[in-house]
Amino acid sequence: MKKHIPSWHDDEVKALSELALGFFEREVVAHNEKWDAQHRIDRAVWIEAGKLGLLCCSIPEEYGGGGGTFAHDLAVFEAQGYAGDLALGISVHSGIVAHYILEYGTEEQKKTWLPGMATGEILGAIGMTEPGAGSDLKAIKTTAIRDGDDYVVNGSKTFITNGASADVIVLAVKTDPKAGAKGVALLIVDLRDCPGFAVGRVLDKVGQHGADTSELSFTDVRVPVSNLLGEEGQGFGQLMAQLVQERLIIGAQASGAMTRAVEDTVAYTKSRQAFGHSLFEFQNTAFELAECQTIARTCAVFLDHCIEAHLRGELDPSEAAMVKYWLTEQQCAVIDRCVQLHGGYGYMREYLIARMYEDARVQKIYAGANEVMKGIIAKSL
């Protein structure tokens, strides 16, 4: 099977992708049972990722990052999807949190947080979703009320990736609870010595069992006004702008996962015998995989188009919504068909395809549910 070579993979990006794939297979996937049991991945894995240059690849070198383009980060995230891992919250840490600080932070904020994030010594999270507010971010109720040189934060967040492990969180709050979207702001909250901050449950999910996904609460937490990202009232616009990149990340992970699912299933059906023939020799099997391969390849080509547009600064919200919606829908469909071709073994978690099946489903929900993506696309028509 001829491999797809992404148009945005120059020699450096290709080498980084190969390095990342080896890291995920060696340090993450090989220890899935341990991560599943403890619902988090050890900090030593993050430190190793930092040593290899896999964290904050597109953050400038002056702030400790790799100094590359976002293509370098995307190569890591795509390799993660191909490896069959969605437990390590590296895309949130490197692709989202670091870029909020880079894009909107002061020089002092960048120098305070980004170098440690690049080494893995500081782990980042972003706090948007609440028990009563998901895709509708302007409905958040967590407040940050000014009191002298501090904000006093009260509220709760849920479904927070890296939540129980994070050292720092970019927190979406309402500085003016009556102003709707215009009352939203983003605060950098240092969680390492934070009276009033508490981690609730590490959530028991259908998939991504090794991922630290937690409930968080804030009770009269005092945050210096100097930790504000940008200005009061700018938070909603900042969130909307950065979600374009977040949705592209999910598309990259989905594409990597589809490619791996098809490759593994081709190999399995060629080795598995039934009725005196390999499964692949049956026309239904061959045709199913021909369709899955076509879907995976066309999705990869569309992803390439969107990545190239993003690298030029031209990816608009509607195309970002398309790549997130379409690739995650196809990820779930292709992996489901691959599970079927594995038969009973496809339902056994010792097989990678079963874990990929579990992990894929939430891709259609986070970073804006796919129904919301269709609404964004429809508005552009």
Automatic annotation (TrEMBL):
Its cofactor is FAD. PROSITE patterns: ACYL_COA_DH_1, ACYL_COA_DH_2. Residues 11-121 form the Acyl-CoA dehydrogenase/oxidase N-terminal domain. This is Acyl-CoA dehydrogenase. Keywords: FAD, Flavoprotein, Oxidoreductase. Belongs to the acyl-CoA dehydrogenase family. One of its GO terms (molecular function) is flavin adenine dinucleotide binding. Residues 233-381 form the Acyl-CoA dehydrogenase/oxidase C-terminal domain. Residues 125-221 form the Acyl-CoA oxidase/dehydrogenase middle domain.
